[in-house]
Amino acid sequence: DLQICQHRAPTCCTKKMEESYQAAVRRERTQSIQTLNFELKYVIVGHITAFQEAFESLLRFAENRTSSLFETAYRPMAKEAAEPVKELFTDISLYILGAETTVESAVLRFFDSLFPLVYSRLINPGITDLSEDYTECLRLTRQDINPFGRYSKNMVTELSKSLWASRLLSQALSLGIEVINTTEHAALTKECSRALVKMQYCPHCQGLTLIRPCVGYCLNVMRGCVASVSELDAQWREYISTLEYLTNEMAASHDLENALTGIRNSINEAILHAQLNGPQLSATVDKVCGQPKRQEGNPPLDNVVPVKEATEAQTFVMAHAGLNNKRREFISYMKRSRTFYASIAERLCDGDLVMRDSSTCWNGEDVV
């Protein structure tokens, strides 16, 4: 009553043993593919971790630099500016990780929150009554009167150019892991598991436990079994090309490190621009939002302190040159894996599975 290992000679197998063999080949095939995938997955996961760690480190550094701008140059508003600064960098982080947000919305929301502070602490430091309604009016007015000139839009442009490749690379790396995980769990067809049993275990039914499959026979069986996975070859090659393009874009002129560390200077220029145009801004705001309560006689405040160029930024960018080296190593490895899905049958037939150095092997029907 054997269904797979039918042979003219006497057999030591039963139908129940054939069923056990089918369960065994399914388990072995999944393990074999997982073993092949392990190194590739390990490299991609390692790069995702390195990329995210370096990125988080960059963000923290850029956020600290930006906060120190307010603490050293704009002390009257430093405490209140802490929250908008934190929100800005949180939004940038979420954007990189693929959240449904944009760089433009993050930057403009930041400047909306910044304007009431700049207006009431630097341009008109005598304002005492900053009610919620008045603050909201200032936020909305910012969009119409553009107190920060071209600097807010320049910041959007620079960050957008630098961050889009990082965002796409982050999404692409996650997609790579998803593809590899999916191929590990691709179900074997009934025909495939029967062919694998015939190739690997039917010789056992005749007591031939040391005879292994012929190379050509193994390749034919495996190519049939992994046909659906092999079809990924063209898309996988295209995927590797996309990774190469994105890593090159990240290392190009619109560099992630420079863009993030440059946020501080962009904000400083924007605030200086607003201060220089203080009288015109006050006249417009008074018409739109009304006149707020003021203290008698404005106290003299040294509002504008020249900001020293932070040399630690250059040191930091140098330190993150290591990230570029990691990118290069990663893409070099990934380029070597271009044929990963095209050659999967050959690699499954490698090693101990087939007979390579002997004159006898199993061809599915007999020892040859």
UniProtKB/TrEMBL annotation:
The keyword Membrane appears for this protein: yes
Keyword Cell membrane: yes
Membrane topology note: Lipid-anchor; GPI-anchor
Signal peptide positions on this chain: none
Pfam families tied to this protein: Glypican
Compartment list: Cell membrane
GO annotation, cellular component aspect: cell surface; extracellular region; plasma membrane; side of membrane
GO BP terms: cell migration; positive regulation of canonical Wnt signaling pathway; regulation of protein localization to membrane
Keyword annotations from UniProtKB, A to Z: Cell membrane, Glycoprotein, GPI-anchor, Heparan sulfate, Lipoprotein, Membrane, Proteoglycan, Signal
Location (main, coarse): membrane
Protein task: Cell surface proteoglycan.
PANTHER family associated with the record: GLYPICAN, GLYPICAN-5
Family, similarity comment: Belongs to the glypican family.
Protein name stated in the entry: GPC5 protein
Organism: Baryphthengus martii (Rufous motmot)
